[in-house]
């Protein structure tokens, strides 16, 4: 066993990542329940705001956590998958778990992992281990509230051993059909499982088939519902430098003149859901007990402090979501990995940027609706570079290029087996387009997209050692070490 902290972290990463990946589904909550029972049911030590949906979960979870923390609460945040380091998934008070605490948290629960593995027919998965670590870390902190994002689905998701006092459902569309169902209604039924008796369900705008299923679940369990577009929503929005200026109508008040440093109508909708979730939580008995007040669930009352909301919103970020990580040329990474997510990203790009040429570098998982994702991209992309990311589930570059040629035409598609080579090609194409432009230089850009893993890999390749954007020139960093000795996040599970 290695004694150095860095060596110990690498050993633990190797040990955890060697477990069954989350995309190898065995639908049961027995293992995670057995683990949490041994740990003393830490998920019951704090109230939970639980989030599911197809797109926007991570952004909405991050926004919700920022708002709760701005109100003086100590927060725990669990999201998935990670971009570069597994400790990113578990945050306390807005800070990802540092490596030394990650090692300590794993060592604390390791004996219990062995007991559960020995008692179950199927050993604990990577994701189950991280869920157990997160719940334990939050109880030890201790936190006042946990913001909990599902890995995939809802009913059978390992996070669903917690009972959220607020359940947030972001927009539902077709994705993960192998596990969740082939129709919007079937997927909605799976995701509706996080809505628990007596909870408050905050529902983003949904397709009619999804809305019907979700509302049926609300009625079935006796939850209270808050619907975007009816009970809360975006009143207005306009472009601003580096983001947008929005006005949100909440459940308890209006919040005008909010500067959100994120692009796209979908992010404004995510913010509306986050504000509604925090308003709903503020009116729960759990929040009232914590604050010493006597406010009941969704009782009449004033909204959140507007100055607090305004300051909190201005600090919000969502790494890997239309994130500008480089300039000259502009390089944007985006984690869109399904048709719905890509449609939202494309709309945001058209609204916020004025590229005359946009080169797309795409690496996507082989189980995705590749043709539909490419259809969404085609109208705004001048050239596509088909490549792979660090996941073993990545569609081979040649197969992706073949699918892209059917959508874009062969002359608009280039193949590069490695992402670092693809970035170099894409940047060169953008530079060439700029050099050939008459009267509008600097208008070519690069979009790296197709998966959370792709976004995470690109951020590693294009960042220097301090996590800042790579300095100067058009070349990328040499090598393809992604990330360290661990596999890509797709191997770890979560929605990618």
List the helices and strands and how they pair.
Layout: H1 5-17, H2 30-38, E1 48-52, H3 57-70, E2 75-78, E3 90-92, E4 95-96, H4 99-119, H5 126-140, E5 145-149, E6 166-169, H6 177-180, H7 184-191, E7 200-203, H8 208-221, E8 224-227, E9 233-240, E10 243-249, E11 254-260, H9 265-282, H10 285-291, H11 306-314, E12 323-326, E13 330-333, H12 339-352, E14 357-362, H13 370-377, E15 383-386, H14 397-408, E16 413-415, H15 419-436, E17 444-449, H16 452-462
Parallel strand pairs: 1-5, 1-6, 2-5, 6-7, 7-8, 13-17, 14-15, 14-17, 15-16
Antiparallel strand pairs: 2-3, 3-4, 9-10, 10-11, 12-13
Helix pairs in contact: 1-4, 2-4, 2-5, 3-9, 3-11, 4-5, 7-8, 12-13, 13-14
Give a description of the structure:
The model is unreliable at 292-300 and 464-493 (pLDDT under 50). This protein has an 8-stranded mixed β-sheet, with helices on both faces. A 6-stranded mixed β-sheet has the order 12-13-17-14-15-16. Strand 9 (233-240) and strand 10 (243-249) form a beta hairpin. It has helices spanning 5-17, 30-38, 57-70, 99-119, 126-140, 177-180, 184-191, 208-221, 265-282, 285-291, 306-314, 339-352, 370-377, 397-408, 419-436, 452-462; strands spanning 48-52, 75-78, 90-92, 95-96, 145-149, 166-169, 200-203, 224-227, 233-240, 243-249, 254-260, 323-326, 330-333, 357-362, 383-386, 413-415, 444-449. It has 496 residues and is of the alpha/beta class. The two termini are 33 Å apart.
């Amino acid at each position: 066993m290695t004694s150095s902290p860095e060596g110990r972290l690498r050993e633990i990463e190797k040990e955890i990542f060697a477990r069954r990946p989350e995309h190898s589904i065995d639908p049961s909550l027995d293992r995670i329940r057995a683990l949490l029972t041994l740990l003393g049911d830490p998920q019951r030590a704090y109230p939970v705001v639980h989030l599911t949906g197809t797109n926007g979960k991570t952004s909405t979870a991050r926004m919700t956590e920022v708002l709760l923390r701005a109100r003086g609460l100590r927060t725990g945040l669990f999201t998935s998958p990670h971009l570069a380091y597994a400790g990113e998934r578990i945050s306390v008070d807005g800070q990802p778990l540092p490596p030394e605490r990650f090692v300590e948290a794993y060592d604390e629960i390791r004996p219990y992992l062995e007991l559960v593995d020995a008692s179950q027919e199927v050993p604990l998965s990577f994701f189950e281990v991280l869920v157990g670590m997160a719940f334990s870390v939050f109880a030890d902190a201790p936190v006042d509230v946990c913001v909990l994002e599902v890995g995939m689905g809802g009913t059978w998701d390992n996070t669903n051993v917690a009972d959220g006092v607020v359940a947030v459902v972001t927009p539902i569309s077709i994705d993960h059909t192998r596990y969740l169902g082939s129709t919007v209604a079937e997927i909605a039924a799976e995701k509706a499982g996080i809505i628990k008796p007596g909870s408050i369900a905050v529902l983003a705008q949904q397709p009619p088939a999804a809305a019907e299923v979700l509302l049926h679940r609300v009625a079935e369990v006796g939850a209270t519902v808050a619907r975007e577009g009816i009970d809360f929503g975006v009143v207005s929005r306009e472009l601003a430098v580096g983001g947008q200026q929005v006005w949100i109508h909440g459940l308890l008040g209006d919040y005008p003149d909010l500067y959100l440093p994120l692009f796209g109508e979908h992010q404004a909708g995510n913010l509306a859901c986050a504000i509604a979730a925090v308003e709903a939580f503020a009116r729960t008995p759990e929040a009232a007990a914590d604050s010493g007040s006597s406010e009941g669930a969704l009782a009449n009352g004033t909204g959140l402090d507007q100055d607090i909301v305004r300051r909190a919103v201005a600090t919000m970020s969502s790494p890997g979501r239309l994130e500008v990580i480089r300039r000259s040329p502009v390089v944007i990474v985006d984690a869109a990995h399904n048709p719905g997510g890509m449609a939202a990203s494309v709309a945001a790009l058209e609204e916020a940027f004025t590229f005359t040429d946009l080169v797309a570098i795409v690496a996507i998982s082989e189980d995705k609706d590749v043709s539909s994702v490419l259809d969404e991209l085609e109208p705004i992309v001048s050239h596509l570079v088909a490549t792979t990311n660090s996941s073993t589930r990545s569609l081979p570059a040649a197969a992706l290029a073949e699918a892209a040629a059917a959508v874009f035409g062969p002359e608009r598609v280039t193949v590069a087996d490695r992402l670092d080579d693809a970035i170099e090609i894409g940047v060169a194409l953008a530079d060439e387009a700029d050099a050939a432009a008459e009267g509008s230089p600097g208008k070519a850009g690069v979009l790296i997209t197709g998966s959370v893993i792709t976004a995470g890999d690109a951020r590693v390749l294009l960042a220097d050692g301090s996590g800042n954007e790579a300095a100067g020139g058009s070349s990328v960093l040499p090598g393809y070490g992604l990330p360290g000795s661990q596999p890509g996040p797709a191997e770890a599970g979560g929605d990618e």
